[in-house]
Amino acid sequence: MQTTLMIHDGPAPADSDILRTGGVPLAPAGFVWPVCGCGGPLQFFAHLPVEDGVLSVFLCQNDPGACEFWDATSSANRVHLFPREELRPVVVPEAGLTLLPTASAIRTQLVTFDPEEADDEEGEPDAYDVARSGWKREPEEQFGKQREVLGSLGGSPSYLEDDRLPACPSCTGTMEFAAHLEEGMTRETAMNLGGQLGYVFVCRSCREGAFLTD
Fold first, then answer.
1. What is the reported pLDDT for 117?
2. In 56-74, which positions are buried (b, 16+ CB within 10 angstroms) versus exposed (e)?
């Protein structure tokens, strides 16, 4: 089994077109900054280039815990799938919690493991869980450097029940899983996910996205 982990890779230019958390979103001309149902602007979390565009992830942080950013149908989160061409830094609203304190670069690391060697007595091992928990673990260490892991790209959603898979609001079909998101390394770089694992989904034909947490 294989998992493509996303690993923290130090500071990043705020407007770079690379895998990153934080910084300024890049979007086509005419982009309007998303607003939560509470009336405040959403905070930009992640810029995730994928094979057919860029996933841009936003969550509400105006009053953490008050707006349901964990719910895929809530106005408190937004995922855009932008075409890669003609992206530009957008104008950031002057008020509200809109940006993370620091932009962090992400590098990818392909992790391969043998399912038969995974220690999971309850059934088939979860690929993301095994890859993350074993990241940089030495044979005699109890823990690896798991906080370096900022999530993963592709694969399947970790421990998410089928009845929670979001439907596309345009075509009503089940969305495709795109990425996991973890909170991050430090207070300055972290995305506030309420201590939960984040899931990013996309409907590529409709160019719609969705977000939820476990």
1. 59
2. bbbbbbbeeeebbbbebeb
